[in-house]
Design a protein that fits this description.
Strand order of the largest sheet: 1-2
Oligomer: single chain
Largest sheet: 2 strands, parallel
Shape: extended
Number of strands: 2
Order of helices and strands: EHE
Radius of gyration: 15 Å
Length: 61
């Protein structure tokens, strides 16, 4: 049975994030984050897609 994976994609300059910045009053807030060497939108190797699976790159949920 195929599994459908979704991942987030956006341009490096942020032009395609849409109106998120002006609609969200918390845009300028800075949250301390632990630095990780992982891509937050990447699919981890433990559950990597198989040839029959579908991967959909999306900009929004």
């Amino acid at each position: 049975m195929p599994v459908i994976y979704t991942t987030g994609q956006s341009s490096s300059d942020g032009w395609d994030v849409g109106s998120w910045a002006w609609k969200n009053t918390r845009t300028d807030e800075s949250q301390p984050r632990t630095k990780q060497n992982l891509d937050a939108n990447g699919i981890v190797a433990e559950i990597a897609p198989q040839p029959q699976d579908i991967v959909v790159d999306k900009q929004k949920p």
